[in-house]
Amino acid sequence: MVRVVLPAHLRTLARVNGEVTLEVAGPVTQRAILDALETRYPMLRGTVRDHVTHKRRAFVRFFACEQDLSHESPDTPLPDAVVTGGEPFLIVGAMAGG
Q1: Four-residue CA torsion sign, 73, 77, 80, 85
Q2: If pLDDT is split at 50, 70 and 90, which confidence band does 66 have?
Q3: CA 13 – CA 10 distance, rounded (Å)
Q4: Which of 90, 86, 81 is closest to 30 using CA atoms?
Q5: Which of 6, 23, 51, 76 could form a disulfide with 10 if both were Cys (CB 3.0 to 4.6 A apart)?
Q6: Mean pLDDT of 31-58
Q7: Do residues 22 and 40 make contact, with C-beta atoms less than 8 angstroms apart?
Q8: What is the CA angle 58-63-64, rounded to 5?
Q9: What is the mean pLDDT of residues 23-27?
Q10: 3-class secondary structure for the chain?
């Protein structure tokens, strides 16, 4: 089981408290996690990645094992600690302003 931590506004939209756990078939990658997340919580489609291109939205970042994975290929296998559920995959809403 892969553990995923969502930002507060997406937890509210998905009607979940705390982190979610997902069954991910095949290699555990960003794309596989997001596919599983959007399948289980269809109301999140288009919030983390674009509906058409499936690219990460500009103000969303991905972290795991204290590393920013936002600019990694979505098909790069994630660390074993994420695959085994030892560490969560974090989806973070970036802050901007001035």
Answers
A1: positive
A2: very high
A3: 5
A4: 90
A5: 6
A6: 94
A7: yes
A8: 160
A9: 92
A10: CEEEECCHHHHHHHCCCCCEEECCCCCCEHHHHHHHHHHHCHHHCCCCECCCCCCECCCEEEEECCEECCCCCCCCECCHHHHCCCCCEEEEECCCCC
Distances 21 to 48, 49, 63, 72 between C-alpha atoms, Å = 17, 19, 16, 22
User: What are the distances in angstroms from CA 43 to CA 26, 71, 97?
Assistant: 24, 25, 27
Prediction pTM value: 0.92
pLDDT at 96 over 90: no
Higher pLDDT, 94 or 35: 35
Contact between 68 and 62 (Cβ < 8 Å): yes
